[in-house]
Each structure stands twice: as structure tokens, then as C-alpha cells.
Prior knowledge:
Layout: H1 15-62, E1 73-77, E2 83-87, E3 94-102, E4 108-110, H2 121-125, E5 131-136, H3 139-144, E6 150-155, H4 161-170, E7 176-182, E8 188-194, E9 204-207, H5 214-217, E10 227-230, E11 272-277, E12 280-285, E13 287-288, E14 291-292, H6 295-306, E15 313-316, E16 322-325, E17 346-351, E18 356-362, E19 366-369, E20 374-377, E21 382-386, E22 389-393, E23 397-398, E24 405-409, E25 418-424, H7 426-449, E26 454-459, E27 466-471, H8 479-493, E28 519-521, E29 527-529, H9 531-540, H10 542-549, E30 551-555, E31 561-562, E32 572-577, E33 582-585, E34 594-597, E35 601-604, E36 609-611, E37 619-626, H11 628-641, E38 643-645, E39 650-652, H12 655-718
Antiparallel strand pairs: 1-25, 2-24, 3-21, 3-25, 4-8, 4-20, 5-6, 5-9, 7-8, 10-16, 10-19, 11-12, 11-17, 13-14, 15-16, 17-18, 21-22, 23-24, 26-27, 28-29, 30-37, 31-36, 32-33, 32-37, 34-35, 35-36, 38-39
Helix pairs in contact: 1-7, 1-11, 1-12, 7-9, 8-11, 9-10
Amino acid sequence: MPAMSVGGLASGLDTNSIIAQLTALEQAKVSREVQKKESAQSTLDKFKELETRLGNLQMKAKSLELPKDFNMFKALSNYDDRATISGGEGATAGQYEIVVHQLATTQKVASNSFDAVNKSMATCIGMTDSATISLSTNIAAQKTDPTKKTVDIIINASDTLKDIVNKINAAEGAGVKASIMSMSNGENRIVLTAVDTGTNGFSITEDDTGGMSLLSSLGIIDDSKQMAAFGNALTIKGGGPATEDSLFTDLNTVLNKNTFESPNSGNLTGDKIGIKTVSGWVAFNLFDGGGARKIGDVLNEINSTLGFSGDEGFTLNSSGEIVLKGDWAANSHFDDPGFNLADIKIQMGTFDGTDFTNVKKDAGSLANRNVFTNIINEGQNAFYTLNGMSISSQSNSDDKTIMGTTFTLKKADKDITIKLSLEPDMSALADKISGFVEEFNALLKFIDENSKASIKEETDKETGKKTSKRVIGAFTGDSGISGLRDNLRRMLSSTINEITGVLNNGYSTVYSAASHLGILTNREGYFDVDKEKLTKALNGDFEGVRKLFTSGGFSDTAGFSVGRFGKDAETGVYRYDSSTSEWFLNNSTDPLQGTWVGNSIFTTKNGLSIEIPDGFSGTAQVSFVRGIAGQISNFVEKAKSGYYSEQSGRFVDGFFKQSKDTYQKRIDEIQKRVDQLQMRVDNYNNRLVKQFSTLERSMSNLQAQSANMMSALGGISRR
């Protein structure tokens, strides 16, 4: 409100007080609206807190939503400083004995030496244009995006050694990190270190658009030489990589055994090793008159026969991989334009003179590798025995040998046998489920506390009189939130029909509802967990309990499986009839709409993919189930991001957005009323000030006129 000047000098009235009191009566209307706005804002704040709490519940639900989330194990090792074990998706209980022969190491190389780190490439190596460098991606990046094999950086002539290092380190997903090694004698080198261990290390290539080889000029790679390596390492019985001094009978061919057959005496017709060339296989004996031959001797014979000399040809590296060095494209055995590097094969086993009819050892595929000029550390693979079987791994964490199980190697010691075991940890899983229920209860309590109305007593400070006031919660009377609460309770307490057996879909468990596990409603309306009963259920029917909570599919016919599914995918029993290639849901006779990928994968319009085995004929059923955690997670996801409504044929905003929009609209409307009322109050105040000011001026004029008249009358009487 505008400030008022002191009034009442003429009238004798306290006009400022009168104006203030009259204005205050009108301002009270504004205050009431402001209180409504503050209440609405408080409700919106509570709703945002509800959204956060629902997000927390969804996180707990997501941790139980997929079958793999139930793979919890107790991992034991008698030498956990040497090796450990862990279980993930697809893991099964097991006991293992391992001996670590060699740890995987990281590839590390250096550039040539330069006298300064801040000189440009134009100054250091005479670079005149830019060059594009391609770096291989690391394993983590490849898991995120399997199609992305390389990441590119551009090196300019003005870049320094520091700039190159910074650009390499800024390349997201690159399989190499860079640093600068500065020595006290003034030498400065770029050092490249692989992100991942093993012989694959990292690769680096360039598009030398500048008319020169940047990598060669820096001394990082030797582009005058070529090298490629076969991916399958040769291991020996008892563990470890093969060397060139190893005999072929030392090799592990299967299950820590050597199955190579030696020739009959004087008749060298036993197993052979062969190299596939342009003209076919060239085979060599694994045995001679004195018995099994050394691997190195046979490789030398192969190189001599194929015309390789010097340091060119086939050798064995420290990880037991067969390596090919030299310009093989110029070799007459490999120089056909239609014959690629990947066509060169090395196999061992029974050879019939034309082909291998019984391959007992395959060296794998041949792939290019860089020839680095200055090698600080050569990347090598890890080697260990697993229950006597010889294993090679690119990493010290091997998650490929046993499905779902990871062996982490920490220290090599051929004389120590490490005993590892993996056992289902039902107690930890019961704790995980209990934590989910606790989060569920916390959410319900939050809703209840903010939905109830209470009576609050207040005491007047002046009179001491007590009055009662009804205080409502932020969510009192909100049918949307009470409906959300009821839906969540129903999901936790209802029966999952698809696993009861009543649908005759090939699966049944007694644990088709949370109450059967000991998750029961207490007097307050929340849920208690009988931990002992829950653990007993997990031990008694693990798969049944898992299906009760998770989202996934199962079939009454081998080969059928559920793949991807979205938030709109419908649960139920899907029936397939190969005679019409049609799918039906539950008891409907209307074929489902969807798309096919070939004849093997059908995806419904709601985003559920089902795989069909090749050549299937007949009828089959596939059940898609959303268990307790799956339902709650999906429900919250729809509430957050919305969903497609079949009834309306359009996308519907989620509950959160709709509610927040409603609350915000209410706040905005109240604010609009506040602004309008405040404007009226200000105008009213201005009118009062103007009216009383006019009154004061009028009375002042009257008083002046009266004084003048009395003065004139006094003058007349004196005369």
C-alpha cells in the first residue's frame, strides 16, 4: 500500500488510523487467499515428496523385478587374497578348485622422446595438416553399445603432446588412457596404457590425411611391420600357456586331456596341424620317429615351407597365442585378392589329405594387432585351472567360463589350490524382500499421515480461552491419492493368477500370494514379514517365490520364450497355432495384432516379444506374468511417464504430471485472485487517502474562511 502523510490537523480526526483500519478489513480478504495459496503450495510440496517416496519404492521393486535379481549367493574362498568367486544372472550353486598360474597384465607403450611437451606437432615432426585417430573402445563401452567399436579424435598440426594426451583421455569409451612421462634428462614421452587387460589390449589406427603417418612419426607404432594373432590361446595340461618348447602332447585339447593320436610305428599317419592357404590346407606332422614334436620346431617348418624368413611368419607369444608377423599379403600362399586375413586358419586333429574331419584344437580367428615401437609392458592373458581344466582369460575377472559365475584372480601361485564355493543365500534374499516391504509400509504411512484430519486446540494469549480447530492433511479428501494407495495395497496382497495352476498353463505353485510367504496385514493396516516363513518358502520352492515377485514368461512347450517387454505389455496366457501362424490372448478368439521377425520372433503391438523354435508345428502356450515387484514397478513407471490408452486411442499423461498440473493450476488461480484483490485493496486505499485529504482541505478552507469572517466582524465592532 502507498504511504500516507499525517492527517487530521484540520478535522481533528486520526485519519491515518481510520484509513489503516478500513484498508485492513479489505486486506484480510487478501490474507485469506494467501493462506489458501500457502496451503495449496504445501500440498504440492507434499505431493512432490510422495513422488520421491514412490521413486524409492520403485527402486526397491526394480531390485526384485527380474529373475536375475533373485540370484543372491554366499561366496566363500579359503584364500580370498588369491582368488574369489561371485554369482550373477544364470549362476548356479557349485564348488570349485582353482590354481592361478598367471595373471593378466595391461599393455603399455610409449612414443619416441621429445625435448618439450608444449611444442606443436608442426614443430616436433613437421606435421602440416590434421589427422583422424581411431581408438578401439573398451569392454565396458562395448557392452553399452556393441556396434561402437572405435572412437575418433582429430589431431591438428598446432596440437602439442599435452593436447594429444588430453584429447585421448577425453574420448568417451576409448580403450586407452594417455599420460606424459617426463624424465630428469629432459626426455618427454607419451605413454599409452590399455584400459582392459589381456593380449587384446587396445588398437590405434589413423587416417593420415596430412600426407604423413602421425603415429609412426611419434614413434608409437611401426607401420613398416604387420602382425596378427589367433584368438584361442594354446594351453597345456595342468594349466598355463604353451611355449615353443612345449610338446604337442602337452597341449590341453579337452577337459585337461590331450586327445592327439600318435602314428603307428614307422607310419606317420597320426594327427596333424594344418594351415589354410589360398590353395587349401597345408598339413604338418605333430609326431616324428622320436615321438611328439615341439611346437616351435613345427612352426619353424611351417614358416620354411610357406617361404617366411627372418622374424616373419608364425610364432608363439607369452600368452600361448599363435602370432603371424610380416607382409603376408605379398606371400604367394595368401596373395589372392579374394582371400582375407580372416580366411587364414590353423587347426589340429585328424586330416584326410584334403580337410580336417575331426578338429581337436582350433587356434581361432586371426585379427590385426598393432606393432608398437616402444613396448613398456606387453599385455598378457590370465591362466588358471578350474577343477583341473586349463583356462585362459583376457581378464583377471573371468565371467565367461561358467555361466553367471565370475572368478576374480588376485595372485598367481602354482603351488596353492584355492577352494571356492557358491551357495544360494536365502537369508540375504529374505532381507532384500523385507526391505522392499519396509519401504512399502513407509510409503503407506506417509500417505496416511498426510490424509487424516485432526483437532488442534489453541489458547488465546490475552483471554486464556481455549478453542478447537480442525486441521486437515495435505491429501485429505484427495481421491486420486487414496486410489493410488488402494492400488498399491492390492498389488502386494492379491493373488498372481498365472502361477496358481487354475489357468492350466503348465505351471503351479502354492506361493501365488504374498500372504503364503508370511507377508501379512497387521492391525494398523500395514504389512509384517515372518522372516522364518519367508526363508522356508525360498528354500522349499525358490522358483515359485521368484515368479511371485518378478516379471517374465514361461511356456508349456520347450523352445518358446519371452524376450523383450514394455510397460504396456499385457499379462496372461498367449496361445499359438502354427496352422494359421496366429497368436491369441487368454480365451479370446480374435488374433493378436503384431509384427514378425522372420518366422521366429513375434512382437505384439503392446511390446511383448515371443520367440518360437525353428520348425515348430502344433499349438503352444506362453504365459507372461508380472509378479508383485513387476506390477508395482510398472505401475509407478506409468504414473511417472504416462501410457498409451487403448480405450481413448491416445497417450495419457501419468498420474504425477496430471496431479502436479492440477495443483499448480490451483496455485496459479489463487495467485491471480490475490493479485486482483490486492489491486482492489490498493485502489481502495488510494481512494480513502484521496477522500480524507479532500475532507481535510475542505475543512481547512472552511476554518480559514471562518477565521477571516470573525476577524472582519471584530474590526466592525471596534469602529
